[in-house]
Each structure stands twice: as structure tokens, then as C-alpha cells.
Amino acid sequence: MKNKVINIWDKYHHFLWSVIYMIVYLLWFALIETRKFSRYTVIHTALDDKIPFIEIFVIPYIIWFFYVAWIVLYTGFTDRYDYYRVCAFLFTGMTIFLLISTLWPNIHYLRPRIMPRDNIFCDMVSMIYRMDTSTNLWPSIHVYNSIGVYFAVMHSERLSTKKWIKNTCLGISVSIILSTMFIKQHSTFDIMTAFVMAAVLYVLVYRTDIILNIRTRNLEKKKRKQHSYNWVK
Predict the structure, then answer these.
(1) How many separate domains does the chain show?
(2) Most CB within 10 Å of its CB: which of 37, 75, 100, 158?
(3) Model-level pTM?
């Protein structure tokens, strides 16, 4: 029994860091959502006024939660290096978002005051509005993480070889990005800055492979330490 527990811990202990981070993230986010700041920066562009409200896009908006969870769990169970890279990408961007929201509280006034139609999709949008205020939305984590999932798929040896998976994920990511504008959750400024942040983090995480290199060095140090211990023994 003890060996089984040890084996399970050795195989899956890396998930612990994701759990810890998500607890910290949710607590921090809840704090800035409930706190009333004395001043907010209004986010708005002229293009925002030209984008129509299309309530059916609430579906891909909600799918995002499962989409991001899927890539974290999939890489965590199949390839630990892919898991470290996707977590580094997602969590770094999410932390930057929290810092921006804390230091530069922001708000937008894009949401319709009255739902233009009476249907289940408008009801779902109303529910999201009640759960998530129109503050602290820059840059869009929905957009940033959707891009991150697609990057992870394109850099996965298992997933990138399957054309239908790549095309499906591209479609899901695009629909989620559009959904943030069509249900008036984000300004186009939130979307553009999320793309910029994703481009910078892509270079750091995937092009320079900084996370992979750090992890490899740590493994080499561990091996050297173990070798020295065995030699002394």
C-alpha cells in the first residue's frame, strides 16, 4: 500500500502546484472583485461600439472553462514537460492580469442595460454578468488562455500530429476570442493586449524553452547529488 502511494505521488505530484496556484488565484481574484477601488480606468475603443451583441456566443465563452482544464489535465497525465510549459504560460499571464487589476483597476460600460431578447442564451449571459462584474477585465484572460491552449496543442508531440485536433482547437480558440466581444465581456483593447502578452510569453516559454531548460538543469543536479551520495555510501 505504501509503495502504491509513493508511486502515485511520484507520477502525479506535479498537479499539486497547479492546485495551489488556482487556490491563490481564485482568492486574489475574489478579493479584487469584491473590493471597491476609489478610481477605475475606463477601457473603451471606437470599435467596441460597432460590435453587435450576439448572445449565442455565450456557449464558447462557457466552454473556455473546460477547454483550459482539459489541456492542463491532458499534458499533466501524458507529458510532464508539456505540462510545465503550458502551466508556465497560463499562470504567468494570469499573475500579470492580477497585478494589473490590483495596481490599475479598470472597468468598462459595454454591457447592455436590458437584454435585447428573451431566450435561454440571454439568460445565461445575465447569469455571467451577475457572477462576474464589469471590472478588472484587462487584459482578457479568456483570450490569453485560449491562445495558450492552442500553443500547447501545436507544441505537443501527441496532439500536433493530429490535424483534426489542431483544427478543432483552432476553431474553439477563435470562437472563444470572438465570444468575449459579442457578449460584451471585453473591449477590443482587452483582446489586443492579450495577444501582445501571449506573443511575449510564447517567446519566453516555447521559443527559448526557458522552463524546459530550468527543469533539465534541476534534474541533472538531482542526478549528480544522487551519484555523490551513492559514491560516499
Answers:
(1) 1
(2) 75
(3) 0.88
